[in-house]
Design brief:
Layout (H helix, E strand, L loop, with lengths): L1 H15 L4 H38 L13
């Protein structure tokens, strides 16, 4: 899990004393934020894909806007 990876990274860095804890915390915060951004992008692309296939199913020259009903 993400928490386990975070803990392992913190412990590995602390034991090796290669980075201060503050730097590691900042990096982990940045990684967490990036993961959230990527999740949002994946969600957007999945919704666009569902709308695309719905339009394709309805026939030629169709446009479908994603709604929760497609979800």
């Amino acid at each position: 899990s993400w928490a386990d990876m975070y803990t392992e990274a913190c412990q590995a860095t602390h034991v090796a004393t290669t980075q201060p804890v503050e730097i590691l915390d900042l990096r982990m915060h940045c990684l967490t934020q990036r993961r959230q951004e990527l999740r949002a992008l994946v969600k957007l692309l999945l919704r666009a894909d569902k709308a695309l296939y719905q339009a394709k199913h309805l026939g030629r020259d169709r446009v479908v806007v994603y709604t929760d009903e497609l979800g």
